[in-house]
Each structure stands twice: as structure tokens, then as C-alpha cells.
Amino acid sequence: MRKLIAASAMLLAVGQVQAADECGKVTIADMNWSSATLIANVDKFILEHGYGCEAELVPGDTMPTGTSMIEKNEPDIAPEMWSNSMKDALDKGVAEKRLRYAGNSLSDGGEEGFWVPEYLVKKYPELATIEGVKKHAKLFTHPEDDTKSAFYGCPAGWNCQISAGNLFNAMNLADSGFEMIDPGSGAGLAGSIAKAFTREEAWFGYYWAPTAVLGKYKMVKVDFGTGVDKDEFVNCTSAEDCEDPKPTMYPPSVVQTVTIEDFAAKSPMAYDYVANRSFTNSQMNGLLAWMEDNQADGEVAAEHFLTEYEASWTAWVSPEVAAKVKAALQ
Hints:
One of its GO terms (cellular component) is ATP-binding cassette (ABC) transporter complex. The chain is α/β, with parallel strands linked by helices.
């Protein structure tokens, strides 16, 4: 009888562990930008083939997805949430145990700054600093007035136009002969970089990462010599009515994986995977450039990543899960 009771208890314990790790159906937000759709498709493949989940991609975007997760408990996973854009609501969802911040999907965070081409810094190393850029201002010829120097700002109507303009003023770039150019659009800004690289000309302006542009064109982020003053950035640099902006580097934007609490509780092993999964900006820049060059969608890009970057993703999972994913890729 004792043996029977012990055996029953053991079977019950095994059953409870299996139930706790049961993945079942998982919905993943497929956000409408390239890095997010890549991560979503990587998650879908690994969760399906490595953890036995019934994974489904659903359309998503930052605000609608975050709101739906808080109010409707779906989808289960938002793989790339730029959480600062709705931080208060997400924090409240976490406090109320509706959501969890699983981890950083971009380990470096979203990155902004003023940039110059790497080939130019190799020729003039001091261009890696803002003082060096000012010293060599005449290198950055204005396309419409060769008596002025060109700084390519953020397109009109974008939030970054405010911070770029305030920093332009804070560092007195106009006193060094610079004039801010509105590129008109994101495509116009990217095109100005592409044109400069084709001709190996000087270029100086605002850009952000991760992007295909910084994957294709090797740029150096200019050091303002200030470090990051987050309070200054939040309260003045990014404010339209900032009257006396001070120089500060851009603070990184937090980019996280967010899940609903039910998924984390129901599927702890699958949750551990999304908590461990993280890309560097350099890595993501290269992947985005590959996607653009090959006109690849998220599914094709995910297969490329899993095939060509094995050392990266196998570090996120157990050897047993890695073996299952590798078998599925073949």
C-alpha cells in the first residue's frame, strides 16, 4: 500500500510539472516594422518547434497591442515593445499582475544620436567628437549654399525633430556655420546618407538604430563629451518649449519583451526563452540590411537568422530545445 501511495504521488508530481510546462496556444504580436516582425517570427519558430507551442502571429502595433494585453489579456507576447511610449499604463499592468516585463529584446536599447561616416573618422579621428565636427565644419558642404555647412535633422512632424533641434542649438552649431536641413521624410534622410556614401562625401546629422541604414552604412556616433543627462533630456531636450537646452547625449530607449501574466505562469519554460532572447543593435542593424537587400519578410528573415546565427540563438535555450529547432530547420 505504501509503495502504491508513493507511486501515485510521484505520478501526480510528474503530471503537475508537465501541466505547469504545458505551452498550448500562444499568440504573438507581429508589429508592423522590420525588426519587430523578425523577432516575432523567430519566437514563433522556436516556440513551435522547441517548446511544442501552438504559436500564432497576430497583427500588432505599440499602443493597440499594449492596451489589448492590459484590457483583454491578449496577445500573450509583444516581442518588441518600445515601452517608454506607454510606460505608465504598462507599469500599472505589471503592478496589477496582468503583465510581465520579460527582458530586453534589444540589449542596447533603441539608440539615437548625431552621426558621421566611419570613413571620414578614419581620415579625421577628431570627427568622433562634437568639437572635432565644429573644427572641420567646412567639410560638410551645404547642398544649396557652399558658404554654409549642412546638418541633416529629423523630418518635420517627427518627435525627434524637437530633440535634434534643441541639441543643434545647445551645441551652438549655427555659430560654426551649420544650417539644419529638413530632409522631408525618412526616405529623404536615408537617401542623403546613401548619396554621401556612394561618393564618399562628408555627412553629419541625426539618425537612430536599429535600422537597415546603419547596417549598410558604417557610421560613428558623435560624442558630445557630456554623457547622458536623463533629466535634462526628458524635461527640456525633448520638449518643444525648451528655452535653454543643454548638451546631453541621447539616453537609450528601453525596448522590452512584454508578456501577459497568464502566459508566464502557464508556460514557465517558454517564458524563460523570451526572457533570455535579446539582440544587440549591431546584430539587428545587419539583419535589417539583409532583409532590405533581399526584400525578405519576417518569416524568411527568421529562417536566415536561425540558420546563420546559430551561436546566438542556441545561447537562449537548452541543448534539448536547440536540437529540436535545428532538426526542424532541416
